[in-house]
Amino acid sequence: MINLVVYFFIVAILIYLRKIFMNYKYSKILFLTLIVILIEILALLQLSTSGKELNINDDNRGLISQDNNDVIEVDYNNGENDQNNDNEYTLDPLSISQNLPVTAEITLDMDFISQAPYGDWGMPYQEACEEASLVMVEYYLRNANLSLVIADEEILGLVEFEKNQNYAVDTTVEETGKIAKKYYNRNYYVYYGQQVTIENIKKLISQGYPVIVPLYGNVLGNPHYNYPPPSYHMFVIIGYNEENFITHDPGTRYGAGYEYAYETIDKAIHNWAGSKETVSEGERAMLVVGK
């Protein structure tokens, strides 16, 4: 619209100046020179406007990523997205993975840590499976190595942060995702119900996304857990083969690459439902922390 107004304004100037230049010697040369100058000015105005529009669009795309403070919580039971703000991701990891090939077997290259790096299973380490899972995924996304010192510092840092933010000892996947956003500035995605399937977990992992799952620990049957086993647990699924999911299970020092049958994890997936006695009633959910 602005360019059109400028165009007509220049044409009007040319018509007016043509009448003036007709009275001077070399009027045609001067008039043609003026036309060239005005055309150059119009071209520069057009380029400047186009550049500004491009920058605005690029900024908006950045803001979608930066200002989306929490999550798209995708509840596929009703097909609607429950968002915590007005911004919107056009694609989430599962949508990206839907039409891409799934490898037959895969194990993501991720360092393992126990939730008790130095073998102290007292508090807060006893309840630090959520924190340990986040730390492993964060360092995978950074492509960085984890040592015992770093693992311990990261877990204690998260525990202190959660305490200051008034989080409970046990957190849902939604709360765990929010912690990832606030502490590590990571976007995250939570999936529920019918989208929490063996096949969809494989799709995500096949595209390089580790999947954090909340679990009813009593049905996992891991012989390395302390007794009694954790009623509510959380770990990272990092791969799969023909028969099993491959996990980094921070609930035991033997949890690196620990394999569980597909059916075992599928049966165990339950989100925190308010108490250790009601974990088995929790909804199906899984968490992906964005790259």
Topology:
Elements (H helix, E strand, L loop, with lengths): L1 H20 L5 H41 L3 E5 L4 E4 L9 H5 L8 E2 L21 H14 L5 H17 L8 H12 L3 E5 L5 H9 L4 E6 L15 E9 L3 E5 L9 E4 H7 L16 E5 L2
Parallel strand pairs: 1-4
Antiparallel strand pairs: 1-2, 3-6, 4-9, 5-6, 6-7, 7-8
Helical content, roughly?
40-55%
Class of the largest domain, according to the CATH hierarchy?
Alpha Beta
Secondary-structure element pattern, one letter each = HHEEHEHHHEHEEEEHE
Termini gap: 41 Å
Describe the structure.
- The chain folds into two domains: 64 residues; 218 residues, Cathepsin B, Chain A (Alpha-Beta Complex).
- The protein has eight helices and nine strands.
- The strands form two sheets. Strands 3, 5, 6, 7 and 8 form a five-stranded antiparallel sheet that branches. A four-stranded mixed sheet has the order 2-1-4-9.
- Strand 1 and strand 2 form a beta hairpin.
- Helix 1 runs antiparallel to helix 2.
What is the structure about, briefly put?
With 291 residues, the chain is of the alpha+beta class. 43% of the residues lie in helices and 15% in strands. It starts with a helix and ends with a strand.
